[in-house]
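Async update (no meeting this week)

Hi team, since we skipped the sync, here's where things stand on the single-chain job. The sequence we agreed to prioritize is pasted below, unchanged from the tracker. I ran it this morning and attached the output directly underneath so nobody has to dig for it. Comments welcome in thread, and please keep replies under the output.
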Amino acid sequence: MARAASSIDLPVDPDRVWGVIGGFGSLPDWLPFIPTSELKEGGRVRHLVTQDGETIIERLMAFDEQERHYTYHILQAPFPVASYYSTIKVSSTGAGKSSRVEWFGEFTPVGVTDKDASGIFQDIYDQGLKSLVQALKV
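Output:
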């Protein structure tokens, strides 16, 4: 099992951050390389389209509004992995005036090394959190 993880501390109220990233269909609001997200099956499955026109289908596995996190599983994607599960979480820091966003996942590489598979998702998580800073205008 390979892993990747990224986090960022933001001088922004956690409810504001969650308001941007907390919706399962909200990736296009803050992640430029995912311009399209369509929710299906009552909001439990999202069909994503990348900037390159690739399709990614993900299923929501767990969602906690109060604790500000959700976990999802990739059903279909152009990535060389299987059994991919990832969580995105917003925690309160600084007496509730700032936030820590964590994005992490585990997966089984298929046809590539653990290092190569981890590198793919490390880059996605790192670039995604940088894009979140821009979306929040921090």
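Quick observations from my side:
The chain has one domain: 2-136.
Strands lie at 2-10, 36-40, 45-49, 55-64, 69-76, 81-93, 98-109.
Reply here if anything looks off.
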